[in-house]
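Kindly review this protein for my students:
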Amino acid sequence: MTRGPIRLAMVGGGPGAFIGPVHRMAAELDGRIRLVAGAFSRDAGRSAEAARAWGVRGYDDFAGLIAGEAARHDGAELVAVVTPNHLHFPVSAAALRAGLHVMSDKPATLNLAEARELAGIVAASGRLYGLTHTYTGYPMVREARAIVARGDLGRVRKIVVEYAQGWLSRTDDAAGWRADPTQSGAGGCIADIGVHAFNLAEFIGGAPVERLCADLAAVVPGRTLDDDCNVLLRFAGGARGVLIASQISAGARNGLRIQVFGEKGGLSWSHERHTELTIDWLDGPTHTLHAASGYLGDAARAASRIPTGHPEGFIEAFANLYRDMADAILEGRGDAGLVPGIAEGVRGMAFVETAVAASRDDAGWVSLDGSIA
C-alpha cells in the first residue's frame, strides 16, 4: 500500500438503521477505509446526530454531501449508498459523475431501466462501482465457486438455492418502506432477498440464467408486493435450477442455502454453517472443508483473517467486499475482482422484473435478458 486509508462518505444508514453500522464496521475493519462524512438521514437533525456520534462531517442531503466532498482536497473518494431502493440510482449516478467511486446496497436501482442507465454512467465515469451481495464475500462461497470453475464436480446439472426468512409472517406489517412500490420497486421479497439467492446461484454455478418460470405471491392479506417466491431456472449450458425465497416462512431466521450438483458429485453451503463446505461424491466419501485451512484455494484463504476453527461471519464477509474495493482503488485497477459490479446489478434487476411480470401474467417459461444495453 502506498497511501491510505480510502476516505468514505455514507448516504443513509443513520440512527435506528440496521445496515448503516454494518457498512461502517465492515469498511473500516481492515484499516484500508475510513468514514469521513455522511448524509445519514432525510431528517437533517438525525443526520447531524449520527455525524456527531461518529465524529465525521455531516450534511443535510446527498446532493450537498457529494458537492461538498468533491470540492475538498481531503474529501471522500468512495460513497456507500445505504438507502431505500428508490435512492440507489440518483445517489450512485451523482457520485460517479462527481468522480467518486461507489459501493451500493442491492438491488442496484429501483428498476431495470435505471440499472441500464447506471451501467452507462459507470462506464463513462472511469470509477469503480460495487454492489454488496454480501454472501459472495464468505470464504467458503469463494471456494465453492473455485471448485465448480475447476470442473471438480463435472458438468453442472442442477442448482438449488433457498433463502427463507419468517420476519414478515405476521399480518401487522413490519416491512416499512419495503412494502411500498414507490420505494422498493416492483418486487418485495424477490428484490430484498431473492436477488441474493439469484446472484449466489450465478456466482457459484458460473453460468447465467437464461430462462425462468416464476410463481410469486403476496401471502399475508393486504400486501401489495410479494412476500413468497418460487422460481424454476434454466442456465446456459443446460443446468436446471430451483430458487425459493420467502419472508413468511414462520420460524425461519436467515436460512440461506445452496446446493450445486454435477456429474461426479455435489456441494452444499449454508449460511448457518458458513465456515464449512460439504462435498458429496457419487463414488466416494463425503468431504467437509473448513474455512481458513491451508488446502483451500487462494480466493478462500485470502478471505479469512483468523485460524481455522475460529468463526468469522457477516461483518467479515461484508468487509471482504470493501477490502477488495479498497485494494482496487489503491492499485488503480479498473475492476474490483470478485466484488459484484454493475453487470450483476443489471442482471439482478432483470431477474426481479422478469419474474414479477411472468408470475403476474401466468406466463410460464420466459427468457431472461440480463444484458446491459
